[in-house]
């Protein structure tokens, strides 16, 4: 019963290949060396594979349906919570709970025995090619590589098909679900307070994340050493693994906190600091972790690693940044045309350009997620101004919806995976160490940096702000996506399990305690004139003013219809060039020069005006609720918070729901008509 | 160098299995029979498969990028065409041309040699399981079945990797791209004229499509017989294949024609007949073709087939219809709640419910596309009225965008595939026969049915309408998706190639000649009061009136907030039940009883009013263009068409572009505020 088997791989024909195999290469199709195993039993030759494919398709549909229904359930419960004004549990936390429940059911209640669909071909092929052709009794079937499976999983596959079925390819998170989330974050980053605090945000995001990564890495290495000493370590765990863990848990995602900030209209500077930091440190963490992974094969614990990795990561980062910036600008130039007559075309183009940024970056070997982030930021700053009002609404609503769906899907999958992932390694020492390290890493990011930044800032980051930022260091979608990406080794499995717990804890405990923390830290609400006026000079302005002037006088007029015409800003000698670059619309706009960022000119008068269009609104009872300029009293205590909680609640809840991230706030002053329309909508909804 | 190979499949353990294999089953893991081929050469044991996976991912990104850029290019050119008012080429035709160009480049200009990524494991395994585990030197890799490849393709794979890379899994069209298109069609079917012509539309869609399918099938069978006689046939071609071909080319898709109708405001009844027929015959064609395929294995040419297939298809059709209707109603009931306060949640829920309809239908073994169609129709009729005005806009815009992207993607892929598909079988006799059969099949659908329908209709379908319907029998996305789904056999390949040509011809020639055909057939434009009044009684009304009354008095009040409160429509004895089922809002609405379908009550006064909100608009020069009631002269000649072409062009182009399918028209009368807003938008854009 011995069978002949000639096999080989076309992928890596190297010198180690035996002579016989070389011969077989010549005998068979030039570049194709096929393994022919002939078996005597060919009775089942004409099995209806279509039936099986259909069955598999139906099963897939049913599995996906489970997730869709999970999301539907989440939405209905969120609605209930919003309706009843429960603020202790955010939709993402809720999605995780539902995910957990479904995970428990799948794991313990339903036991679908293997549907006998798998064949294990255990051939010592020298490589695992991306595509495999299997010759089944003369018919060729194409198989694509899904991924490596650990030895233990091979038996699991036969054990519970259902669990494996609901497991998504980890790359799905990175290539499908994360991009809309990150893009949406970048797209809604166009906030006046963001640019005002740019220096501090960059410091927290870049320096802070790197510091946090290394602190956590070092602490975890100590922890791992301890575990090795007392024999609690079941596999390899290198220093690079520790650093990798540090990088992935350094990506904060305070979506829960920000949603509450938004509902309660918490101080805009604190909001900008937190949001800006969380958006940018995602990018830093991705690049950092990928550069750490990239260097892993060279040496497991060499000290030359760090400088090289930093250099490489810095290089990648710069490349991605400039590449996506260029693309974003290109999009801006494209939408500069009269496409604004056709909102559908415009929205479609906008969507495609954002997506192609991601794909282009991935095709070039950059990190698509980072490219998409900066693309979103550039588009919000320039392209958005070129869009027709209808397209502005459409794009915002589209990305808002995509963000909402992707985020809730990721969080519910997170809950699910706690029970359905089969290779969890829960090590108590590692978990305790990780929680400690995450806490200390965050502290080492926030407090020393705040101290240093306060030396340069005119308006200091107060200690209650620092505590709040410390507290708001939630871990979320990005941390999860990075940790699930590779769970092949023991170290990675332990990291993944621990990361899950960190995410759960921070989202539920820190997220749920935000309102308590806010009132405990006596964080004031925004709005009062006095507070605003105080915060206008908080950043050392010279760098900022140079950039602003350049952007306002040259970039905006060239790339958008807003801003002053170039003929006014360029010297007289450049007249013809200026006339050629300026669109007719820019002249029309000349009288209404105040574009969306005009309050960046640190002019006190502007600020009251800039807030004017978002705060005055009518609540359910028809009473006039005004958090801002109208009621110009300094509200600097938790009494105000309580009052806000009790009184203006209905209005705030509505606004908070309509836009999970505060986009209303970031809009440019629209033409009078559409502003009136928005007001109307608010009163109608 | 002989290697031991034990192999087996866990999927179909049948009696034909040899004793040795049974033994090996016991020896190894209970349900797992693995084939262990041990090779001596394991020098390349630790090959970095990650590198290859990364490379493959980058390549995939680049391939997808090609399509995205193709779509971008299409959008830019469409914009140019719309801007310059070229009406001879629709965006779908344009997408095909660009696809063709890229296909030529990929086929002849770029030659990427195989990247040596494939290994052919030619084992006489008895089945092709959905999942394959390959043991590569101790590590297990999971492979998923992509599909069967014909023998000739195996060499092609080595030949040009690029071509194979840009080939999508045919199921992508059915499971990802088609659903939004079909859903959007159903969602925009809420037209007063559709319900007025319901009887005729159902006759064309059901009877007509079946007639057309059998006529084409019979003609093609004659053609195939002829080819067999003169030896032009290179493979099997059964009668069921002919019928299958008849079914797939019976699905019409006059998207090009309808876009022009919409721009030119062509007669609303003709529009409703064409659009309604095309939407429903897609569903009929899908079910028909799948039932024909389902019966193929039993007997290739048996005559018992037909009755059975019809029975089965009828059963499936009824099941799918009732299932999706139930789901649609369920969605309506869900959105009946106060979710309308939160547009984002509402839109997300709406989207998820539509998607779950598709998945549920697929999981139950129904046809998801058909389910989605009826779901869309039900949602447009009931759920839409429950949505908040903002969600109504959001959902429409979302599905409009998805439809636009999916449609253009399919058409550009169609162009691409003419050159990149490797197994084309172009047979001149078959092609000529097919064109003839398609023409005759369409004629056998339209003319006899119109004659029969005219016997019962008060207002006849005039002969120029019949010619126009004949002419507008374009084939499009559905025909393509059905024909590319299976291209394994010779017959299917010949069908696929021929279908492509039919689609190209009809979209370019018939689509491009629509305006000429309209003026040649002297089709009048809608609007003139006289014409409208004439067409109000065109359908034999008894069936319609019964349905309308039931729907208006009972279904609408129960399922939506619109319509009269049940307390008014139900007999007095049902008072408590009625009060319990009626929402408070319905009472509020009582004074504004005229809901979106109120003009279905064949009341002449309504019609002028119903059109009032869409036709008065200002064109670019500020002059008052009014296609409808204001200028109430009977415009019944091609002079009018020419006038419309020359004069009201700008306004019409804008409207036609904003909504490729006429949704403006199908909206319910919104509260006064939002209607004013829409007007403003039109003037602004």
UniProtKB/TrEMBL annotation, chains A, B:
Annotated InterPro entries: Cation/H_exchanger_CPA1, Cation/H_exchanger_TM, NaH_exchanger, NHE-6/7/9
Principal location class: membrane
Record's keyword terms, sorted: Antiport, Cell membrane, Endosome, Ion transport, Membrane, Signal, Sodium, Sodium transport, Transmembrane, Transmembrane helix, Transport
Cation/H+ exchanger transmembrane domain sequence ranges: 74-519
Localization of this protein: Cell membrane; Recycling endosome membrane
Transmembrane segments: 63-81, 93-110, 172-189, 201-227, 314-336, 348-377, 398-419, 425-444, 496-515
GO-annotated molecular function: potassium:proton antiporter activity; sodium:proton antiporter activity
Extent of the signal sequence: 1-39
UniProt topology in membrane: Multi-pass membrane protein
GO biological process: regulation of intracellular pH; sodium ion import across plasma membrane
Family matches, as Gene3D superfamilies: 6.10.140.1330
GO terms under cellular component: plasma membrane; recycling endosome membrane
Positions of region (Disordered): 662-685
Start-end of Basic residues biased regions: 675-685
UniProt cross-references to NCBIfam families, sorted A to Z: b_cpa1
Family note: Belongs to the monovalent cation:proton antiporter 1 (CPA1) transporter (TC 2.A.36) family.
Protein's recorded name: Sodium/hydrogen exchanger
Native species: Sinocyclocheilus anshuiensis
Lineage: Eukaryota, Metazoa, Chordata, Craniata, Vertebrata
Encoding gene (name): slc9a6a
